[in-house]
Design brief:
165 residues; 0% strand; Four Helix Bundle (Hemerythrin (Met), subunit A)
Length: 165
């Protein structure tokens, strides 16, 4: 076969295959764009939630044990589940660190809650809010709340790094 014939065959094959190649590349880019949009939406929700966790932990650590409530909850767990599907490994690792700190905070918060005082022994427990054990628990809660704030910053940095790639 001569060169002119090969050029003709290549032209026919190229004409037949080019729409398929173009469509394949377009659909791949569309899937990638959808994933980026989904990540952005989940990351925005995660950043709002982690900022709220950090603020609530700081406030709860400084407040009276009876007024403090547990942090995190079902909303945070739901976002973690979504992030497990679409987040990068680095972002998900940082979120796991934050989740562990949140669980630790909640465990210590239960420990720091006031125990019931019987009315006939109330005079012995006046000022019990500042007893050494309760102060130690509040210091621990404050340290963990600081760790949660740092973990929020690390999540934020990991998301920013991933989105700027």
């Amino acid at each position: 076969m001569n060169a002119v014939m090969w050029m003709g065959v290549a032209g026919i094959v190229g004409t037949a295959v080019s729409p398929w190649i173009t469509e394949r590349l377009r659909s791949r880019n569309a899937r990638r764009d959808q994933l980026v949009k989904l990540r952005l939406a989940i990351y925005a929700d995660l950043l709002r939630m982690t900022a709220r966790l950090a603020a609530t932990a700081t406030t709860s650590a400084a407040s009276h044990p009876n007024d403090a409530g547990q942090i995190g909850g079902d909303g945070f767990d739901s976002l973690l589940g979504q992030a497990q599907v679409v987040a990068s490994d680095d972002v998900y690792r940082r979120l796991n660190e934050l989740s562990q700190l949140t669980e630790t905070f909640n465990r210590h918060l239960v420990t720091a809650e006031q125990r019931p005082v019987f009315p006939h022994r109330q005079h012995l427990h006046d000022g019990a809010l500042n007893d050494p054990l309760r102060l130690q628990h509040r210091r621990t809660l404050t340290d963990i709340a600081g760790g949660i704030a740092v973990a929020h910053g690390r999540v934020q940095d990991a998301i920013r790094h991933e989105m700027n790639r």
